[in-house]
UniProtKB/TrEMBL annotation:
One GO location term (cellular component): cytosol
PROSITE patterns for the chain: OMPR_PHOB (PS51755), RESPONSE_REGULATORY (PS50110)
Reported function: May play the central regulatory role in sporulation. It may be an element of the effector pathway responsible for the activation of sporulation genes in response to nutritional stress. Spo0A may act in concert with spo0H (a sigma factor) to control the expression of some genes that are critical to the sporulation process.
Name listed for the protein in its UniProt record: Stage 0 sporulation protein A homolog
Keyword Nucleotidyltransferase appears in the UniProt entry: no
Length: 226
């Protein structure tokens, strides 16, 4: 299977570097050079992953992420010169799956893409998981709560799958990070907190109660029914 990746970057030199990197690595890449062009492209075609800048003409990267998340769980990796932690956290809250700061290392970009695609494709589990009214369909990567669809980002979906596979287990932040991001957890950068908080809010909005417990000093687990 050849993965199809949208490259959204207004700097033509950087866009072409990423395009060549992806095509040389066996991916199908499609380019867009501004926010409006990207918006039309993302509505017209289906992609396995979106690689995008934030500072785009006509329509910002933040607006594009919000648009994508209205209808899709397509993974989004942001590559941006904005290095402020507040910006990174806000982009993750909007639904991005990863954040790479410019100037970037091409090998790192490829590894991040491989990790996100591997994790979103997921290992083959049973067709569905069901806990406390939450149903996660592993074939379609979709979630319903008491019959109502719940839209989650790729990372939120992976976190929920982990919680549902072992509903009594308390996961440390390190365990969650290493399982979902497939990387070593070195220090607290709030990434886990943001994603778990987003997941908790979406489930609570759909079901009217909290579904995730914070076990102070340890980590998180799926909350028992009640």
């Amino acid at each position: 299977m050849k993965y199809k990746i949208a490259v959204i970057e207004d700097d033509r030199e950087i866009n072409n570097i990423l395009f060549r990197l992806l095509t040389d690595s066996g991916y199908e890449a499609v380019q867009a050079f501004d926010g409006s062009e990207a918006s039309r492209l993302l509505k017209a075609e289906n992609f396995d992953l979106v690689l995008m800048d934030l500072m785009l003409p006509y329509k910002s990267g933040e607006r594009l992420i919000a648009e994508i998340r209205e209808t899709s769980q397509t993974p989004v990796i942001v590559i941006s010169a904005k290095s402020m932690m507040e910006t990174k956290l806000e982009v993750l809250r909007l639904g991005a799956d990863d954040y790479i700061i410019k100037p970037f290392d091409i090998d790192e970009v490829l590894v991040r893409i491989e990790v996100v695609l591997r994790r979103t494709a997921g290992s083959q589990h049973s067709d569905s998981l069901e806990v406390g009214g939450i149903v996660l369909n592993n074939t379609e990567n979709s979630v319903t709560l008491d019959g109502t669809a719940v839209r989650l980002t790729a990372k939120e979906l992976m976190l929920l799958r982990l919680f549902m596979e072992h509903p009594q287990k308390v996961y440390t932040k390190a365990e969650l990070y290493e399982s979902v991001w497939n990387d070593t957890y070195y220090y607290e950068d709030n990434t886990i907190n943001v994603h778990v908080s987003n997941l908790r809010s979406k489930l609570k909005k759909a079901g009217g109660r909290d579904f995730i417990d914070t076990v102070w000093g340890i980590g998180y687990r799926l909350k028992g029914e009640g």
